[in-house]
Amino acid sequence: MGSDDSSGSSVCLPKYLEHLSGDGKAIGVLTSGGDAQGMNAAVRAVVRTGIYVGAKVYFVYEGYQGLMEGGSNIVEAKWENVSSILQIGGTIIGSARCNAFRSREGRLKAAYNLVRLGITNLCVIGGDGSLTGANIFRKEWNGLLEELAQNGQIEKDEVHKHSYLNVVGMVGSIDNDFCGTDMTIGTDSALHRIIEVVDAIMTTAQSHQRTFVLEVMGRHCGYLALVSALACGADWVFLPESPPEDGWEESMCLKLSENRAHKKRLNIIIVAEGAIDSQNQPISSEKIKELVVNQLGFDTRVTILGHVQRGGTPSAFDRILASRMGVEAVIALLEGDPETPACVVSLRGNQAVRLPLVECVQMTQAVQKAMDERNFHEAVRLRGRSFEGNLKTYKRLAIKQHDDKITKSNCNVAIINVGAPAAGMNAAVRSAVRVGIADGHKMFAIYDGFDGFAKGQIKEFSWEDVGGWTGQGGSILGTKRTLPGKHLEKIAEQIRSHSINALLIVGGFEAYLGLLELAAAREKHEAFCIPMVMVPATVSNNVPGSDFSIGADTALNTITDTCDRIKQSASGTKRRVFIIETMGGYCGYLANMSGLAAGADAAYIFEEPFDIRDLQSNVGHLREKMKTTIQRGLILRNESCSVNYTTDFICQLYSEEGKGVFDCRKNVLGHMQQGGAPSPFDRNFGTKISARAMEWITEKLKGSQGTGKKFVDDDSICVLGISKRDLLFQPVEQLKKEADFEHRIPKKQWWLKLRPLMKILAKYKTSYDVSDSGKLEPLHPNQ
Q: Name one Pfam family in it (predicted).
């Protein structure tokens, strides 16, 4: 959006949600096809954002079936109707597969039902079939209205008044089978269900030395199978897009028997339900079981997960994703005009984007075509670079080459954990050890942080030493907050005595400070002139140079689960407000994001200063809320958001001001946020980012051994972070200007722009900059 000033140049003006008017507009929201966890969060966001901007929003019950049948299936939604649905799986407005909508006659009935209520904006949450149907409906809209007028079912002027239909899609599918989006709504929750089952099966399999064949959903897409195999360190995985090579039966049995020979007590094989061989013949879980039993005589069991994967409560990731998509969908509908093509609201990295619906569907269908033509390399490429990267990483970590096939680098690489424990650290260590061994290095693990380093608590690790580490929480190597400054002489001596050629640090802000100290000590100590890289791992998510840290997703899920339980308690007692204190140091990421995921009324964070007037305003808001049918409140407070407005103070203030209207309770979550088994996201992220860090070390060391080369440049001591959707190596010196050292947070934090979302969805008037919205992004394969 631009305006011309007197000089004739164009000036970009910011665009705000509150300036987009929904007056006189009506939006219909429906869920169609297979259900997925998180659909309710999307419905809630559409309803509340629509009402916020002044539009009427209608529930369309039972998908396209309800659209055709009309009547009580299309009902105006009120703000309270979508309360307490964030934590519920499935979809409260129902979903149905509807063949009748495929006919023009069915779409004619649907058009009549919408026009009757003045609905010309449709938000469809479903898979590619549902979205394709919506686009056909949009294209035919004008013709359908003219036919209705000719039949005398509607007035002629209504054809002109409602001349076009705006359609925006959100992809709700647990399979993550839609091209153009990084993650579809429901995928992360389905992975949670799978990993919960795998973790449970592993304990029983280990007790009896069993082999388990696990069948997961994915008729045409192997994403769930691939990522769960990566997240649990499965021995073998079968996917529709990447069939095993001919003779796979022998290779798999050899791998399983080798693992047993190395004292591994269990084997896990994961099979996508649509798994095929290179001749497009199905590979069933029963066939695999028979093969293992007949060839190896192993005690083997099959577990078919089925609809368990669709059920249960949505993960924090899915709730946040769906809430963001829902808001973006309403903005897209409000900005639509007759020329606007149907779009899909999608996620790229941490950016919400709009993509052309037709092109996304065509590319999704192209994957299936490539598979049918047995062009599997092309099928994997079309799935996108994330899928391709997952497959490459899985192959590197699952299958160990024989020692005589690995070219030795004669380099020693050490791994250390620094700072507080974070779930996913062990997955990162396992990944680094195995990639390092595959690259020909000797891998050393340092116990108990820099303290252990100074004392020489260093041990060489083999491929088998890190087996089964991905699912374990905390830090098996042990970790401490101690910085290296006090022990520089001793650490330098250990580097020399163990001939360490490179160092990989997994940790949080302390790890970053530690790297700065080691970089500064290079002048005095030649031993530190080696490549060093840090992989961010902290629940606080406060490392400069990275949008995400290993461990933050697990902590977010822990907080969200606790908030769900507390909300349930508050709903039972009625008129009760809970104040929950989260970790994070001065970084408000956990408080803010869990507030969005749990549907909190407010979240107090250090990054957004607040005073007594804000507290009074929040109390007033809650007093008003207690007059409605939603008689409970949830407030989140970051542990260091204010020196004086402590959790106790806020609780007492709320109790006093809310006297006679509501009472107040507080809950400090504490160290439970650091514990627990890592979430699928943290296992996968830790595995991939650590593998990339080892590749960087290998590139740096290539050709340096025996030359006496000293690494003194800034770019030889880096933080590996994720920015939007790219993994970037940034020198620690360069990141100094981006860090607030006093409060141990980055100066700029991407998630702060999501802060108004929580306020809008909690019924606060606020300002939300949507300048980034509005552009239809091009779709490129292999994104």
A: PFK
